[in-house]
Amino acid sequence: MFKIPLTASSNLRKLPVSRQYRHIGAIAALVLISLLSSSGGVPVAHTISNSWEGLIWGIADPVIALDRLAGIVAIGLLAARFGRGAWIGASFVIAALCGQIIHLYQLNLLGTEIAIAIFTIAFGIILVQQIQLSWLVIAIVSAAAGLFQGYADGESILGAGIVTVVTYIIGVTLTQSVIFLCSRESGAIMGGKEIQPILASKIRWAGLAFCGIGIVFLGKSFI
Q: What number of other Cβ atoms are within 10 A of residue 28's Cβ?
């Protein structure tokens, strides 16, 4: 099972139960929004013309693309295993920023959608199989996933003004960070047997769902 540091577990025990499960509710709400956006035809590919649109779309993009949301949530759940889990999130966010910059300089990063789907599947397999890896390995893989996600996000701000680009990046970084932190807290709650034994198995079900999402988007990327 997930090895939660003693300090994290003790901090969770100090929190009221309603507050502990607030993070899980927030992630569930984001997943629901992403599913509704996908089924409702909200365009993932779009252009941004001003700084206000940049901020709004920056906040929305990591949520409305279900494969990207699944990847971030999976990274957060994996980070809950480690005392240095925050470095995993930092590596993802920084790499995503680098990916956006690479796209702005119009450098080619081939197979972006395929790579995002494959990373989502890989994270799902790690969660399902409970594969024990070091935090550094997870951080490196997360950084690679972040690079491709950032590159995909950069499509929206090609040709935009500098202020628009900055506000978009701020929005994306903020949303990615919040999703990661909520997912990490959710993983700590679900992995802590002293809090709720039945929830520990839910992490494997979440991993299975991530595998399914990744497979669907992998198939779509070849169509």
A: 12
